[in-house]
From TrEMBL:
Annotated Thiamine-binding protein domain residues: 3-92
Upper taxonomic lineage: Bacteria, Bacillati, Actinomycetota, Actinomycetes, Kitasatosporales
Organism: Streptomyces pharetrae CZA14
SUPFAM superfamilies: MTH1187/YkoF-like (SSF89957)
Protein name: Thiamine-binding protein domain-containing protein
Organism domain of life: Bacteria
Name of one Pfam family that matches: Thiamine_BP
Length: 98
């Protein structure tokens, strides 16, 4: 399963990068395959381990912010591994074919 999620602290002003870094740090330290871009962090693994990482990432932000917003999207596809890479490679292959 791949989960793309965004954790946003509310009530802390406009500069939220420091808070978001706390959440991303939790994901990176999890050891699960992950990727962060300007809008979301994606993490890949089994349901329980991925949801635990999301829960802990939210808790890291919640520890310092009075309110937290969570946006989550999941691709639940049993038996598929390395989806973070293979899905992008498929798109890139189609783009290269013209």
């Amino acid at each position: 399963m791949i989960v793309a999620f965004s954790v946003t602290p509310l009530g802390v002003g406009e500069d939220v990068g420091e808070y978001v870094a706390d959440a991303v740090r939790v994901v990176r330290e999890s050891g699960l395959p992950n990727r962060t871009d300007a809008m979301f962090t994606s993490v890949e693994g089994e349901w329980d381990e991925v949801m635990d990482v999301v829960r802990r990432a939210v808790a890291a932000v919640e520890a310092r912010a009075p309110r937290v917003s969570l946006v989550l999207k999941a691709d639940i596809r049993p038996g598929v591994t390395d989806g973070l890479t293979s899905k992008v490679e498929t798109v890139e292959r189609h783009l290269a074919d013209g």
